[in-house]
Design a protein that fits this description.
264 residues, Arc Repressor Mutant, subunit A, Rossmann fold, 2 domains, 23% strand
Length: 264
């Protein structure tokens, strides 16, 4: 079995059980405990798992992975998702774009558009979009979070609430099996809620690693979005919820076709 495939399956098992011992993983994959320890060490270095005595568990539900790590993780998948989402944004549209490494990739993918008006609480997004002089970029006021250049707080919520735009582009840290959209910082969540409330259409952009991830702050639910852009088919409970709530699902494939829309 390719090492990356085994490591992905280790993550899946830990998500299902919450904690898995080294001995159980070694038996499951028919490899040595030393091989499992190496896999766990690599996954912990990428902050995808947390090492505990005798095994591995899920990362913290109260603290996100470091920004520089998130920039690297699943970068190609995020790029494909962003390119697919950008194809559904027409020239001349107005947008909100929130905090996140996937939404930053959306900003990159939008650079060839014309005459967009973008309101963002993400200084990285503002910097990227400022390269196109045909755009109007509006930066929300509020408290600057130094670790990822996100702008948060009630002043940001008040600023966002002054506008009504065509599209809200939001990222998320976790999607629970019951359809809850989850994140880590209540101040950031309130801004994203304001974005959802003041957007005519909401696009969620999130890679497959967000399925089953368990941040503790609830932002909302899948029922509140219009379209979901991801890189792999979601788990069956999430797929059912998308269908029941008429949410369009778009899968950014790695093949030449680039993407395939799934029935909502």
């Amino acid at each position: 079995m390719p090492q990356n495939a085994r490591q992905q399956q280790i993550i899946d098992l830990v998500r299902q059980r919450g904690f898995v011992s080294i001995e159980a993983l070694a038996e499951h994959f028919a490899v040595t405990p030393q091989t499992v320890r190496r896999d766990i060490n690599r996954l912990c270095e990428r902050e995808l798992l947390r090492r505990y005595h005798g095994g591995a568990g899920l990362p913290s539900s109260v603290e996100n992975v470091a920004y520089k790590t998130r920039q690297i993780l699943f970068h190609e998948e995020k790029r494909r998702i962003a390119q697919l989402a950008a194809r559904h944004i027409p020239d001349g549209a107005s947008l909100f774009i929130n905090i996140g490494t996937t939404t930053e990739e959306v900003a990159v993918a939008l650079l060839e558009h014309s005459h967009l008006r973008v309101i963002t609480n993400n200084l990285h997004v503002a910097s990227i979009l400022s390269e196109n002089d045909r755009f109007e970029v509006i930066v929300a006021g509020g408290e600057l979070r130094s670790r990822d250049r996100g702008i948060i707080g009630m002043a940001t919520v008040d600023f966002i609430s002054q506008f009504k735009v065509d599209f809200g582009i939001i990222g998320i840290s976790g999607i629970d099996a019951d359809g809850s959209l989850l994140d880590f910082d209540p101040r950031e969540v309130r801004v994203s809620q304001a974005i959802i409330a003041n957007s005519r259409q909401v696009f969620l952009v999130a890679d497959h690693s967000k399925f089953g991830r368990n941040p503790m702050v609830r932002l909302g639910s899948l029922a509140e979005i219009g379209a979901f852009f991801t890189d792999e088919p979601p788990p069956p409970p999430i797929a059912v919820l998308l269908s029941e709530n008429d949410v369009q699902l778009f899968i950014a494939d790695a093949g030449k076709s680039g993407h395939r829309p799934m029935p909502g």
